């Protein structure tokens, strides 16, 4: 039977909309590329309402995806990981110089000087061709995110070594949190260098990419393996596309999470979920019989004894991993037998001096690019405000030629094409301009980049005018959920168009509830006289949901605020009229149902 290829992706934020992890899971023909990125928010400030960690992990993920799409087809090599590091750090440098103030010189040498920091852990796995049970993997990493292999015979095996100032084993790491010795950042140390490793493994199993939220908050290293296998055997569904293993892993981590969690799991060599379960059956029983559960209250000496047995297989590949300082010339992988598994390893081929030269040159180029981007964006905004749309467009296009990930330029292009559409008389050309605007703003939405709230607000407007009601409602939902959305301008118009769109779709309740929550946030941000506005919209939304009693209470509150207002000039006459009309409509509906 042919082997089945699939992957599970788990992404959980410890605080909604404040997560700092990013991930990457892409099939490139015959190669699967997976990666995780853990933004180090505590090490740097950010901008536009995002932490430095979130910005850094998103940028690293976006660039990694584009980097391997363009020319490498998902294949990691010892040469291209250095180029990847250079490209990511250069982009982080541009973003830091464009959007963040320079650090005071007296703070040099401290962690404060490091801006936009993230870990990276990537694995490229060619799909098995020909001889069965031989799987090759190339890894690249920096920081303390990890790549694992889950062996059916030896259990969980760590394929990467954490970059730590003081090396610790996996058990010690659960009780201590030593600082990292290197990570990707806008101000990278010239001596820091990304790791490369090649393995050839003669065994079917599962590869995993994980941020530290996956393994750092269990009580012992084997508890991570048990979590994976317990949920596998609790899962139901005999086909890969209907099995709920991924859902159970998410539920488990939701219960125990103390940090953001990004986990990608990629099984290799299996021909279905039944084959996967049967293959790990003996290993799962071994864990149940030989490792204490739960281990949270177990004496540390007992944990040490168990760890001494577990670590033999867990650290099986550690002897093959060369320290970053011990760089060697890259050679074609040669096999070295390791009982049930065959592993070969190589490390990066560029010398530290060469890398220092590249890094210094990159910093100078990044600073020049940042300054050029800043000037072009200033021009673009000026031209847009003056309604010189062609000149504004040219400035934005030039920015994207320098930095294809620059989100502010995409946002301005979205505004330019939206305004062009509004000026257009011909309906087909109007639609074309709206769609062009949406394409740029959707990129910002997809990547959760800067200007996200503003982009969503404009997308709502575009989809409303295109009469794509489902897309308009969905975009409004996302916009309303964003922290800070209640401080936007034109929220009255937004709620009016949202309600119009909502009436034209079938599934309304969830969207209405999100909008009600948004109105409640508005209520706490407005002066008393204007608090009537959100209560009016809450009443309309509750009426749409069929909750007439709740709607009656809300509209009564709105009218009462209007009547008690000591600043009538702050009230829009048309808003007051709408509220009074809605008051009468709801009262009439209640009367018709015998409530009055």
Calculate the mean pLDDT score and round it: 85
Which term fits the overall shape?
A: globular
Distance between the termini: 71 Å
Within CATH, the superfamily of the domain at 8-104 and 112-125 and 136-350 carries the name PPM-type phosphatase domain
- CATH C-level class of the domain at 8-104 and 112-125 and 136-350 is Alpha Beta
Order of helices and strands: EEEHHEEEEHEEHHEHHEEHHHHHHHHHHH
What name does CATH use for the topology of the domain at 8-104 and 112-125 and 136-350? Phosphatase 2c, domain 1
Number of helical regions = 18
User: What proportion of the residues form beta strands (DSSP E)?
Assistant: 5-15%
Pick out the low-confidence regions.
Answer: 104-111, 325-351
The structural class is alpha+beta
Total beta-strand segments: 12
Order of neighbouring strands in the sheet with most strands? 1-10-9-6-7
CATH 2nd-level architecture of the domain at 8-104 and 112-125 and 136-350: 4-Layer Sandwich
Question: In this structure, how is the largest beta sheet organized?
Answer: 5 strands, antiparallel
User: Could you estimate the helical fraction of the residues in percent?
Assistant: 40-55%
How large, in whole angstroms, is the Cα Rg? Answer: 28 Å
